[in-house]
Amino acid sequence: MLGEASTTEIARNTDAQGLPENRKAARSGGKVAGSARKDLEKKSGRNVSTRTNYKELPESLRRLGSQTEDEIDEQS
Question: Are the C-beta atoms of 25 and 10 separated by less than 8 Å?
Fold first, then answer.
């Protein structure tokens, strides 16, 4: 949720238009969320995401994760 909120805020503040600009905003938002997760893990001494508490993705979504950025750009 933090990654989504961060991405939305960054995209609005930079007036992101189109795929390339929104991709930059999404990466920045992901970095914010990733840093927050790592900081929480460091301060709490426990992992937030483990093999036992993740939600398995359906195969159709897993396939999307294996595509390269160029393949995604070609589909857009």
Answer: yes
Domain hosting residue 20, numbered range: 1-46
What's the pLDDT tens digit per position in 13-43?
999 999 999 999 999 999 999 999 999 999 9
pTM: 0.64
Centroid of chain to Cα 48: 16
Classify residue 16: in a domain, yes or no: yes
Contact 22, 11 (CB under 8 A): yes
Give CA–CA dist 55/43, Å, rounded.
Answer: 24
The total number of residues shown for the chain amounts to: 76
**Helical ranges in the chain per DSSP H:** 2-14, 18-44, 59-65, 69-75
